[in-house]
Amino acid sequence: EWLAAYYLVNCLYQSNESDNHQQVCSVLINQQVAPKYAVMIPFMCGILYNNIISKRDPLGSGLLYFWKLLHSSPPQIVPIHQVMLHMHCLDACKADTDSPFLSSKLQTCHKILVRSFKSWIDFDNAYRLNDVVKLHIFNFQYLVRHRDIHTCVIDQVKMIQARVDTLDKYVLISHRLDVLEYLCISTETTNIVVQCCKQGFRQSKKDVFQLYADLLCRISMKLNERQLDDVIQLFMDGLADNDANVHKTCAEALAKIALNLNERQLNKAFDFLINAFESGKFSVCEDCAHTLTTIALPLKTSQLDNTFECLMNRFYVYFYNARATPLLMKLKEQQLTRIFECSINGVSDKTKGRNARRECVRSIGLLAMKWNEKQLNNAFNSLMMILNDAHEESWLRMASMEPLATIAIHLDEKKFDSVFQWLLNRLKDKTCHHSYIQALGILSKKWNKKQLDIIFQFVLSGFQNITGYECEISSHVLKEMAMKLNETQIDILFTCFIDTLKGKNKFIQQRCMQSIEYLSKKLNKRHLDDAFPYLASGTTNEDARVRALCTKALSAVSTKLNEQQLEKAAKIFLNGLKDEDSHVRVLCARSLETISAELKGSLLEEAFDALMNVCKSLIDTPNDTEEDIMCTKALQRISAKLSDQQLYVLMKNFLERAKKRFTWCVGYALSEMPEEMWRRLSIFMLNESGARLKVIKKRRISR
């Protein structure tokens, strides 16, 4: 971009009649907010500024002409993007307003731009800082340090600090603190923000102090060592608070800022927590145990050992928590052995509570890769005892399946096969729990050909409705193993599906429709040609569940359909937007989003009109509905293909909905709209406005 900018600057100095000069002028006037010039134009400004310093252009005529062209651009409907470009250009000139080598006209121009930026960061009468300003403010190297801007920022921060005690509305406080994050532009402003947070944290209501803690975490990487010391002390004091919410908030906050602490600060926090645990200053909970672990991980091995001993003696259940994984991975073999023994004993101890035993089982599977062969065998035997104990509670057997399958993968063929056979026997049970099927999916990583053939035959038997086999279980098993099947097995299974769809057993037909979705990535052209008519006709079935299953299957295979099939599928999805069942409508909207890249011509227009009708019909709903979200996302995906007129209608609808009820889906769609879309929209509206003015003038003349 710098080389391109250098070339454009040279073109700018050429004769006004030259093509190159006129093209550069066109870019600066008409395309300045285009994303592709976002970096190049500020580079041009920086080069022109340096030409003054190096006396290549001592009068600054080039830079003055550059600013004249930028300000000749037509007004923008959304001016903030143009303003931010001008600010980046000013930043490239080091926000210089006083240097004697600048002409008085340039100094005046730069001072006007500074005042313009001040208006965007002055929120005395507003609750929030503009979202676009937030994206840019940290990228300004000189502008935010300009004395006028810096003074303005300090005044804004002090204004909030003075009002901390008077703010009583949660939303208002949240917006004010959100602003503070973006005003930490210097040590001075950051120091005021920290003091403001400390003041609010100590004096605010219990439902608000979380906001102050979150802000301190977000700005922690900008704090200097002294400021971080103050924040650490604030959170350590909060850990001893009698209020459980304050304790939890401070523990979580201390863990979040740990990555930004130096070794001295980590040691200070570590010693505080260890001493507090040992002295009983406050009771150990999961959150403060995690904080201790997070702080200890970057420290010396001896401190990691102290952490292990402390938690083993005072809160050993933490090791069964998923958040303990980083610590477990750094432990020594003898330490892991102690945890293993606790876990094995915990599994078999029926006096423990349900959650404790479940966590013991889970930890055994989680650390399978760390156990030695003897430990793996012991764990295997312990879990198999649970499965074979008829008096054991069913929830524990279900919880044991995934860890057992994970361990079996690391053991010999005999033990692996014993787990495989145990699961296979349970698959014929109508009450087969989904955890068994998931465990089978884990075992699939190590299946041999014989075991794959056995499972395949089981799945096929279920779809063939053979006595003793359940087709619903076969469908769930197929979902886990679909990618393991070879071409011959896919052909056999698919032939079974087609034969079933020709039959009369509605329940099995539904399972076949569902399973086509699972096999979508493995189907070839012949399979799609055979299945398409059945899926298409199924979308008009009187049963809403059948319509939904067929819609999902069509959506899953849509990327493999030929042009004619894709057109029919698109029309099915469009018709489905009018379905009486809301779930079917949601699926059709999601399917249109899936095939959006393939929509064109009249089909694109139909899709746009249908989706817009849905959005208009839902404009009065109080909250985001799934249907609204899917239609909005589909419209967002096709927006790049729309005509200017359609884009205008779309954006008008989005803005009307945002004004009436600002929901997540509309806000996200507007924020993700690229600059080029806004440019097209601006030009279209200006042209429309010009056309209307001409009509009005003609009417006046005719009168």
Features:
single chain, 703 residues, mainly alpha, ARM-type_fold
Structure overview:
This is Condensin complex subunit 1 C-terminal domain-containing protein. HEAT repeats lie at residues 531-568. InterPro entries: ARM-like (IPR011989), ARM-type_fold (IPR016024), HEAT_type_2 (IPR021133). With 703 residues, this protein is mostly helical. 71% of the residues lie in helices and 0% in strands. It has a domain at 1-142. The protein has helices at 2-12, 19-30, 40-53, 61-70, 80-92, 104-121, 131-137, 147-163, 170-182, 187-203, 209-218, 225-239, 244-257, 263-279, 286-296, 301-314, 325-328, 333-348, 354-366, 373-388, 394-408, 413-427, 434-443, 449-463, 471-481, 487-502, 506-518, 525-538, 544-557, 563-576, 582-594, 601-617, 626-638, 644-660, 664-672, 675-702. The two termini are 56 Å apart. The mean pLDDT is 84.
Helix content: over 70%
Mean pLDDT: 84
- Unreliable residue stretches: none
Number of helices: 36
Strand content: under 5%
Shape: flat
Largest sheet: none
Record field, number of beta strands: 0
Distance between the termini: 56 Å
- Counting helices, strands and paired strands, the structural category is mainly alpha
Radius of gyration: 33 Å
Element layout with pairings:
Elements (H helix, E strand, L loop, with lengths): L1 H11 L6 H12 L9 H14 L7 H10 L9 H13 L11 H18 L9 H7 L9 H17 L6 H13 L4 H17 L5 H10 L6 H15 L4 H14 L5 H17 L6 H11 L4 H14 L10 H4 L4 H16 L5 H13 L6 H16 L5 H15 L4 H15 L6 H10 L5 H15 L7 H11 L5 H16 L3 H13 L6 H14 L5 H14 L5 H14 L5 H13 L6 H17 L8 H13 L5 H17 L3 H9 L2 H28 L1
